[in-house]
Amino acid sequence: MENILKAENVWFRYTEESDWILKGINLDVKKGEFLAILGSNGCGKSTLAKHFNAILVPGKGDVTVRNINTKEEEKLLDIRQKVGMVFQNPDNQIVATIVEDDVAFALENIGVSPKEMRERIDDAMKKTGIYEFRNKAPHNLSGGQKQRVAIAGIIAMRPECIVLDEPTAMLDPMGREAVINTIKSLNKEYGITVVLITHYMDEAAQADRIVVMNEGRVEKIGTPKEIFSQVEWIKSLALDVPQTSDLAWQINQHGYNLSTSAISIDECANQLYKFLEE
User: DSSP label at 185?
Assistant: First the structure.
């Protein structure tokens, strides 16, 4: 599978006097995959995310988007049309007083024709489940609905990849679920590559691959089962694991041998049923 994003030996610090935030990051993001990035506060995951659409550029090393180096300033618009960015607080990305006007904002700035703009706006709102709110004021919407408006504004640009930096951190459980379902739908149904920065383990468990960062470096890359089965290692990084893996691990502390790679509720329930039968 071809790469859409590539980081090669990326080092980054904000000033020449400050410590390095990123320390030799190497990472490939495959076209069409759902990649989650985990790490404790200060590990560099948000800094890395901002390199993927050239908000930041490496001090050393290179980041490429479809083989375009993010250091090529003349290609900045092309890069940001390929990779959209969604941040933690949707209020920071909403600029209009009507939902559909907000979704249209970026398209107006790049000169999309009125006919195509109408098609893109309606398509983006339908894909993110906010079409029914198109004539409403964003400030009257819930946090989850606002976040989907922000995502729709990115989708209208027709990006190949969306990078989301803790998009559910400020939401209640219902809002989180709605946003994650939207993200999964964009990935699975429309083939949009997703890079999700999150501190919610149940969100990361739904990804195709997980990247675990620690102190500016990539510690490990693997499938959710491969990563979350290593409960003690994950906990040593001040991170958590899905409740299913943690339950199996807690039981194993009493001398049993349950699989900590059973990360879905159904897998966990089946395993517990067999365990109780025995």
Answer: H
Give the ranges where the chain is alpha helix by DSSP (H). Answer: 45-51, 76-82, 99-109, 114-127, 143-155, 173-190, 201-204, 224-228, 231-236, 243-252, 265-277
- What distance in Å separates the CA atoms of residue 2 and residue 165, rounded to the nearest whole number? 23
Identify the segments of the chain with pLDDT beneath 50: none
The answer for 151, left when phi > 0, alpha when psi is -120 to 50, beta otherwise, is alpha
> Which pLDDT tens digit goes with each residue over 53-76?
999 999 999 999 999 999 999 999
Sign of the CA dihedral with 221 first, then 8, 23, and 73 last: negative
Task: Determine the straight-line distance between the first and last CA of the chain, rounded to whole angstroms.
Answer: 44
Question: Which residues have C-beta within 8 Å of that of residue 189, sequence separation ≥ 6?
Answer: none
Q: What residues form DSSP beta bridges with 63?
A: 7
121-140 per-residue burial string, b: 16 or more CB within 10 A, e: under 16: bebbbebbbbbebbebebee
pTM of the full structure = 0.88
Residue 239: other Cβ atoms inside 10 A: 19
Interior angle at CA 91, CA 90 and CA 97, nearest 5: 115
How is residue 59 written in tokens?
Answer: 């001090």
